[in-house]
Amino acid sequence: HAAPRARVVVVSSSLHAGGMGNGPCSLDFDDMQLIKPGAYEVGKAYRQSKLANLMFTRELQRRLTASGCSSVTACALSPGF
What we know:
The chain has 1 helix and 2 strands, in the order βαβ. It has a two-stranded parallel sheet. By secondary structure, the protein is an alpha+beta fold. It has one helix spanning 42-66; strands spanning 6-11, 72-77. The protein is 31% helix and 15% strand.
């Protein structure tokens, strides 16, 4: 028996908004891989990846809604720590 609606569930983290001594995260679209000298930090890479997950989920839901697709919902969650 098929479910009437499908879900795309993306795991993110509330750390994208700051925490652990860090301010809110932002994405540097000119250096997404953090390859500029001094740019790479493990925590920064993690926070940026989680922010990107949220941005992807929001855009996916926007596109689903715009296309009239009401049988799929995109959502994100933070499992906590």
